[in-house]
Amino acid sequence: VQLQASGGGLMQAGGSLRLSCAASGRTFSNYDMAWFRQAPGKERGFVAAISWSGGSTSYANSVKGRFTISRDNTKNTLYLQMNSLKVEDTAVYYCAASAGGTTNYAGAYDYWGQGTLVTVSS
Known about the structure:
Mean pLDDT: 96
Strand content: over 45%
Radius of gyration: 13 Å
Order of helices and strands: EEEEEEEEEEE
Shape: globular
Low-confidence stretches: none
Largest sheet: 7 strands, mixed
């Protein structure tokens, strides 16, 4: 499956952004999906995951209550609604697909998008 992330940009702290990840090539609803992010000089880290049906979600503690992951299987699209943005949310955000279940382990994901940059200013 090919993944194309979009929606990143420059935002002031406290603002909101919605990221999208468009999937093509294979049946989107066969895959559990996730968002990861990588800040400058840091390792890629887990943000949120969602099961193939959308019925189960999980979040990193750092974003819980501020970010919401969702998907629309009729549009083959994954979303990440980011509210109350903080400077420390600045990173390149990647969407990823897994045929083997949701997990916060990046190595379990089979396909990755190219990333979209989110910059949060104070």
